[in-house]
Design a protein that fits this description.
GO terms for molecular function: DNA binding. It comes from Streptomyces gilvosporeus. The protein is mainly alpha-helical and about 900 residues long. The chain has seven domains: about 220 residues, P-loop containing nucleotide triphosphate hydrolases (Rossmann fold), CATH 3.40.50; about 55 residues, no CATH class; about 100 residues, no CATH class; about 120 residues, Alpha Horseshoe (Serine Threonine Protein Phosphatase 5, Tetratricopeptide repeat), CATH 1.25.40; about 70 residues; about 120 residues; about 80 residues, Winged helix-like DNA-binding domain superfamily/Winged helix DNA-binding domain (Arc Repressor Mutant, subunit A, Orthogonal Bundle), CATH 1.10.10.10. Helices cover about 55% and strands about 5% of the residues. The protein is built from 46 helices and nine strands. Helix 13 crosses helix 14 and helix 31 packs antiparallel against helix 32. The protein is elongated and about 125 Å long.
Length: about 900
């Protein structure tokens, strides 16, 4: 392989790398230019003993210089890497800095030195030029083709007598792929004693027994990945070329060159000449720069014709398999050729110990340019051939990418539909990659297959309306007069319809698909059945059948057992966790949500396909337990999930959770604003969203102090499940209609199978009704039942929402608090039990009281009547009542005594007889 290259492009510049351009003065030793002769009779070239010059603009790479110094402390240091990685420049810089442990003998090797006699003649001359005293009996090689073993023995013996270390640098050892030379080197190095320090520079691993040197700890290696420029080094290279103001381009250059020294250097030179250096760096293409000339001359042109053809044909691939390369070229020896290229560090890298390999990006780009120039029109045919091989070996995403690059969209779509692979657009580790590959597909392609694939792509982007339009078009194609639609196409159509139809028809379609899916695709394409089960569960959820949906999501999750279905399992568990939280099964919800998040971290669920429902479920669990900080943390994470803002169901739940968080902080106005946005993403609105929105909105209206508005909201939404009845009963109680409230509660009491949340809230409302009826014993019994039901799940929020009467009752009956330390935070506990008189933490005043309201509250605390307050403050009675209603709303209470008590807890009142300013903690 010729070495007449722009070698000094690596590491910062310099002259082309040939013996003729080296400095003629040696670094040390005798400086004469007398031409000793080798065994062929030709003079030994003095320039080959000179250390290469190092340009001023070279980037000093301290980390590598230190490693070279460490290596030279031992017998052997090996520097290997592809052309232009900066091997020679690194070693020359190290020598010229004087970091070597002793004198340095440098020898640059060329292909003409392959004969063992010629090689050893040069080595002996290099040593003698650096004052290594070799006795006359060492001698000289008598023949170019072989070296007497006794000469090597005498040389090794002479080297054992060295009084200080001597470094011998052999640069370009890949030029000598001769086993006799390697075995001689091994012999001398093994027997020369500790003072000889050998530094080998090569593009390939030498034929030395490196495994033995590694096992004995006698070798230090600096390889291609070590020679790659770091970001800091690349930044210094740009500065050295006067491009310091373009340091923001470093990342783009590193991404394109992968730290290849010559590529960075040549690109910097191009940037110096460019009108817009930053734009050049962003759009840098190897085919438009000196990099192409370098790689073609230094690498490609040096290869045999068969190797050049294989490299060009396979350059269309992101990664290359020997069998695929054979399929593209019609050859049978691709494995051997690729192995040789890998060993030679010719920009071909193995992938994780597999048969696959990859080409350095710039090299691949140059190869493709060469292919298009020398074989015009061949690339699309190669890509179609590659697509077929990849698809037949189960690599669908890569196959579709090749077909897309060839512009053969019909083949890609027909393949996905006819082989029932369309479900992989919606789930599996390559789902996002597939959707991205198909994103450039024209919209005017004929036939049902492109329409079905386009519909699946739209669904993957949460565009159900777009999906529906594509499916309508596919259905037209499939049912044209005389058409004979394939079963696979009809099955794909029905599956996709499952996710785009209204809830009830979708649920029916999901059941109808069961037998057909199980019979045709269960083993070969498990994602089809997983998607069918998931779609059915979603339809049941949207049709306001939460209990059936919960079972369906659990059933769907159980059926997801492989990598291809992990994405579906992740979504099933997230939705299931949300439903479990709504039922009050908080521990189950937490378990399912955590598992959903764990699955989301797997490679089989692409980041763009991860759902925020797991975090939403954990936020709901934390809310029900009164852990507002945790609820806010998980809510914020859900809002940053990829499906937030795209998936209508997730967006509805986000809006409802935001409203519930606002309510938990007493911000009823913000809660009403948030709930107004809930359900809007669903078009047409689903029964599920309408009922959920009505429940949260009614709760916000109650917090606002408007039970009439809450009743109107609930009645307008129509009859619902137990949660709807509970909310209506609560609103009736707040409106003073206790009789109708008790009737609603009685109807629920007779209903079997209620969830934990429903049972707890039912008992609390019944207890509240008993309190209003002054039936304390019944109220205590019902409160005890509520506490007992809530205890396993630590469900605190229903008791906080119920109002102050709960805590009054607990104060009056300390026996009720026994065993319920979980109900309050630590400060309210004594020795693990609920402290008598303990109440929830004082509510935060989220809307500041006005000065006039604080004055009214102060008068009320002094036990003045409404009329007396009006007279003292020169106000009308109606104005005082208005202020009191506003105070009740802001303090989330319903009575004057509760307002005074709450104000004292929040230190909103002046001490008796005090003149201090009334302050609000809100």
């Amino acid at each position: 392989m010729p070495r007449s290259s722009v070698s000094a492009a690596a590491n910062g510049g310099g002259e082309p790398r040939t013996a003729r351009t080296r400095t003629t003065a040696p670094v040390s030793g005798r400086g004469g230019t007398a031409a000793h002769r080798g065994p062929t009779g030709d003079p030994l070239l003095v320039a080959k003993f000179s250390v290469p010059s190092v340009p001023r603009s070279v980037v000093r790479r301290q980390r590598l210089l230190e490693r070279l110094t460490e290596g030279a402390a031992g017998p052997l240091t090996l520097i290997t890497g592809a052309a232009g990685t900066g091997k020679t420049t690194l070693a020359a810089s190290w020598v010229r800095e004087g970091a070597a442990p002793g004198p340095v003998a440098w020898l640059t090797l060329e292909q003409y030195d392959r004969a063992p006699g010629v090689f050893w003649a040069y080595v002996l001359e290099a040593l003698s030029r650096h004052q290594v005293e070799l006795s006359d009996d060492v001698g000289q090689p008598g023949s170019a083709e072989c070296v007497d073993h006794s000469l090597l023995t005498r040389l090794a013996a002479a080297l054992t007598r060295l009084s200080r270390p001597l470094v011998l640098v052999l640069d370009g050892l890949e030029q000598l792929p001769v086993r006799a030379v390697a075995s001689g080197l091994d012999f001398v190095l093994t027997h020369a004693g500790p003072q000889l320090r050998l530094v080998l520079i090569s593009r390939v691993d030498p034929l030395l027994p490196l495994h033995r040197y590694r096992a004995d700890g006698r070798i230090r290696e600096i390889r291609g990945p070590d020679l790659a420029f770091t970001r800091q080094e690349a930044t210094r290279l740009l500065r050295g070329h006067g491009l310091g103001s373009y340091e923001t381009s470093v990342d783009a250059l590193l991404a394109r060159t992968e730290g290849w020294a010559a590529g960075l250097r040549l690109c910097a030179l191009e940037m110096q000449r460019a009108d817009d250096p930053a734009e050049f760096a962003r759009s840098f293409a190897a085919s438009q720069s000196a990099v192409a000339d370098y790689l073609l001359t230094e690498v490609l042109d040096a290869q045999p014709a068969a190797t050049r053809e294989l490299l060009m044909y396979s350059s269309i691939l992101d990664r290359v398999h020997p069998d695929l390369a054979n399929a593209l070229t019609g050859r049978r020896d691709a494995e051997w050729i690729l192995a040789q290229l890998t060993r030679a560090h010719l920009f071909v890298e193995p992938i994780n110990g597999t048969p696959w390999c990859r080409y350095q990006p710039l090299f691949a780009e140059v190869l493709r340019m060469h292919l298009r120039h020398h074989r015009p029109g061949l690339e699309p045919r190669l890509r179609r051939r590659a697509a077929t091989w990849l698809a037949d070996t189960g690599r669908l995403a890569e196959a579709v990418e090749q077909a897309a690059a060839a512009g053969d969209w019909q083949w890609a779509c027909a393949r996905m539909v006819s082989r029932s692979e369309i479900g992989q657009l919606l789930t599996g580790p390559e789902a996002h990659r597939l959707e991205r590959a198909l994103s450039g597909m024209p919209g005017d392609l004929a036939g049902a297959a492109p329409a079905l694939v386009a519909g699946a792509c739209a669904l993957a982007r949460y565009d159900t309306a777009g999906c529906r339009a594509w499916l309508d078009r596919a259905e037209e194609e499939l049912h044209k007069p005389g058409a004979q639609p394939a079963g696979e196409a009809l099955l794909a159509l029905r599956l996709l319809r499952l996710f785009t139809e209204p809830a009830d028809p979708a649920a029916r379609r999901g059941r109808e698909l069961t037998d057909q899916v199980l019979r045709q695709l269960a083993e070969a394409h498990p994602e089809f059945e997983a998607l069918r089960r998931y779609g059915l569960a979603c339809a049941l959820q949207l049709s306001a059948r939460p209990d059936d949906a919960r079972k369906a999501f659990a059933h769907a999750a159980e059926g997801c057992t492989g990598e291809m279905t992990e994405g579906v399992r992740h979504r099933c568990l997230g939705r299931l966790a949300l439903l479990e939280a709504q039922f009050g099964s908080l521990s189950q919800a937490e378990e399912h949500a955590l598992l959903a998040l764990e699955i989301a971290g797997h490679r089989s669920v692409p980041p763009t396909r991860r759902s925020g429902t797991g975090h939403l479920a954990l936020a709901s669990v934390a809310l029900e337990r009164g852990e507002l900080r945790a609820a806010r943390r998980h809510f914020d994470l859900a809002c940053r999930a990829p499906d937030a803002g795209h998936d209508p169901v997730t967006d509805t739940e986000i809006a409802l959770t935001r409203s519930r968080l606002d309510l938990a902080h007493g911000q009823w106005h913000a809660a009403l604003t948030a709930v107004a946005a809930a359900g809007a993403p669903l078009r047409p609105p689903a029964p599920w969203s309408a009922q959920r929105v009505a429940l949260v909105r009614a709760t916000a209206e109650l917090a606002r102090g408007e039970p009439g508005a809450a009743i109107a909201v609930l009645e307008e939404s129509g009859p619902g499940g137990p949660a709807h009845t509970l909310a209506l009963a609560r609103a009736r109680l707040a409106a003073g209609d206790a009789e109708r409230a008790r009737g609603l509660l009685a109807s629920l009491d007779r209903r079997p199978g209620a969830g934990i949340a429903e049972r707890v809230r039912l008992r609390l409302l019944q207890a509240r009704a008993a309190v209003l009826a002054q039936d304390t014993e019944a109220a205590c019994r019902l409160l005890h039942d509520a506490l007992t039901a809530a205890r396993p799940e630590r469900m605190r929020m229903p008791f906080t929402e119920a109002g102050p009467w709960v805590w009054h009752l607990l104060e009056q009956r300390p026996d009720l608090a026994a065993g319920h330390a979980w109900l309050l935070p630590g400060p309210a506990r004594v020795n693990g039990a609920l402290r008598t008189g303990g109440r929830p933490p004082a509510p935060v005043v989220v809307e500041r009281l006005t000065d006039r309201e604080r004055e009214v509250l102060q008068r009320a605390a002094e036990l003045l009547s409404t009329e007396e307050i009006a007279e003292a403050m020169y106000l009308s009675v109606n104005t005082v009542k208005t202020h009191l209603r506003s105070i009740y709303r802001k303090l989330a209470v319903s009575r004057r005594s509760d307002a005074v008590r709450c104000a004292r807890e929040l230190r909103l009142l002046r001490p008796a007889g005090g003149d201090g300013e009334v302050t609000s903690s809100g």
